[in-house]
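I am writing to request your help with a piece of structural work I have in hand. I am sending you one protein, given as its amino acid sequence and as whole-number tokens for its backbone shapes. Kindly check, if you would, that the fold set down in the tokens agrees with what the sequence suggests. You will find the record immediately after this paragraph:
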Amino acid sequence: MIEQFMDQIVENVKAERTKRGISQLALAQILGHKSPNYVAKIETRKHDVSYNLEHLYRIAYEFGLEVRDLIPSIENSK
């Protein structure tokens, strides 16, 4: 259940990132990293790395969204 919830957050961020034409490198820089590898690890969900609340705040701020726009409802993650 939690894995589906986390997967949906990753998918929501990725969809917003690609919709805006933002590269993994650009997103990594928004999050304070110098390499796109960090975002790639999150997006593949294979390395036990996830976005945290600070990340979601920074992404929402840069994308002109609310943090809640990136988080699925619990009902949708069942």
Observations:
- Residues 42 and 48 are 8 Å apart (CA to CA).
- The first helix runs from residue 2 to 19.
